[in-house]
Amino acid sequence: MNCHATRAVLDLHAEGRLTPRREKAVAAHLASCAACKALTAPTVVAVKAPTGDFKARLAAAMKGERKVPKVEAPRLALNLWPRDFSGVAFAAAALALVAIVIGWSGVPSQQYDRGDELAAGRMP
Amino acid sequence: MRTPDAESAHRLGELALLTTAFILPLAFYLRAYDSTAIKYTILQWGSLTMLFGWLWQGLSRGRFSAPAASWPALLPALGYGAWMILRFASEPHKLGALPDFLTQLTMLVGFLATFLGFAGARSASRFAALTVAAAWLVALYALCQAAGIDPFIWKGAFGPRVFSTLANPYLCASFLAIAIPLALTLELDPETPAPLRAAALLLLPLAGGAVVLTGSTMGAAGFVVTCVLYAVIVPASLRTRQALKSGGLALLAAIVVAGAAALTTAPKKETWSYASEFRRLTAAAELRMVAERPLAGFGPGSFSLNYPRFRPAEIISMEGPSHSTMTDHPELPLLGAAVELGAIGAVLWLWLFGAALWTGARGASALRRAGALPESVYAAGFSAAAAGALAASHLGWAGHAPGTGWYAWPLAGLAAGLAPLAARRAAVSVYPLPVSESIRRALYTPALLALIGLAVFPGLWLRSDVNLNSAIYYAKASNLPQAVELFSKVLPGSQGYTMALYFKGNALNDLGKSDEALVAYDRLQQQAPDYALVHAQRGSAYAKLGDWTAAAAERSRQATLDPLYLENLIAWSEAARAAGNLEEARLAAGKAEALDPKNESVRLQIAANDLMEHRLMAKAGRGKTNGHGVAKKPR
Q1: Which CATH superfamily is domain B457-619 in?
Q2: Which of B255, B429, B464, B520 is the most exposed place for a label (fewest CB within 10 A)?
């Protein structure tokens, strides 16, 4: 595996979801590639020590939070209807264009001068 | 690793899946020769978009992946696809077989795309809801037709029987049968909103009534089979009280529709025996095809091209006086797979659906135990729906029609694809792309251009069907030059390509351009060697050119394929006599006499043959002919 292939599966590697064979290949690459190995290292965030008025600020923040009106959790819904109608408008316009290009002129289908179920295989 | 591009591609593919599920049963276009030709177009566009959505998603993420546990269901599908493509690449009549091959391929894409790309409770619920919505519209239009309200030109095409947007009573009933398990599944899902649940439940009486009004015994039988399978599979998979109740509803619907159909649409004894005899004879002919090429078959999409050689005379007799009937599809989907793809293809077909449905039905209980209630409901319901659709398709030919045959594939794909979700952190088989992101991004545009380029073809093929329709109209109105021009515009790959070549030849022959007619027939026979009455038509063209030997040979071939075609036997006798082959002329006239001894044309042929013999004898003195029009030397 090269670097590109390895980096594409690092998230699955971190979650331990790769198959044993793939895991072995990734591990072999990481052992030989410092750049890719660096990407797997856990992120360290420097945290500053709290200042003297930390407790007071925290209390004030918590007090303010209590004033936030309770937001009702969204109800489960299928969301069949799209939120953005531009896509629908585009699809409708494209379909209309196709209908025009195909042409509405001409003669109607001639399949229906017979009315039996075997019509699917019949010749005119 | 989920980039916005991957998300867009996923949405595009899912949109294509859902749009196809909704529009496929509803679309029809009455200016085309086959008013349901547009369904093929939609299916091809939808499958292409799903395929590219999945490819684009992989490009964007830099990898293609599937749950490691999905291989038992994925392997037969990939094997079936590979075998189908391999057999198509090696078959001799590629252009003739292309339309049906593409239909089979799009159905497989429906399975793979849903299995690999869009399996999830959200996609499943949307798929079910949109199919139920389409079924509502189909049923409402059917009820309007029953009430005599139909604004379209096909009004009353099947007498009092309704056919809705499916253009055929049996297909209409078959589609509604597919929608019922989906409606029950939607109702069973605890997260379905109440109005949608009510709409799903209301579909039961509405669709049941429409099925009865189709007057299709096969369709009603398919409805009953689908409901019974749902009533068995879903409670057995989920083992909940709600599932049992849902199964009970399905059983009730089956009993009511079966009873109503028995009372109102019970077929007359002769109709029933005709249909069953027709099916028995066709299936026997298909078994003979399998026996000729048992392992690899004739190639995907090639059934109609090869079947004329196996069609028994009894079927020709049953089909009436036309003699130009073409059988487009095999009788049973599994037998059809054996005919076209051999035992290898049939085994892969069985393995594919067996593995997918088993995975789905078994996965449902695992999902329920894992607390994934909606997923478990859809895995069980879709397994039952796909099993029902497959079983019902073996009662008729709905499995070959795009508006009905497609659904079994994505339903099986969704059911099998939901099952691995039970294990939240299960292993994933992943295939990363060993190229940089910039190279992957550079591939987006060519992929998009390829999609657009390929999407042009379904549109052109639909246009071809419109041209075919217009051409036949002009041919019937005796405007043959205009007809020939339009027949020439029917493109390879369209459903009517072989038909157009045949009719073009006939029109040219009628115009007296027999040389050009033979060229058209040559092109036709490269794709469909025994199409309709092509040998009789070639015989006619050769006769016009004065090549009686070739004319007699063609007529003889037609007589082998269709021994009941009296006009051909008479023309054969005439051509053989003109070619100087009196024995062959007598043979042809004898066959004609056996069919219709009192026919005036037959009597004339016998008299003409006798006269020729007398003349030859007179010419050769007391000598007798040797049966080839050449007088034997007198002893």
Answers
A1: Tetratricopeptide repeat domain (1.25.40.10)
A2: B255
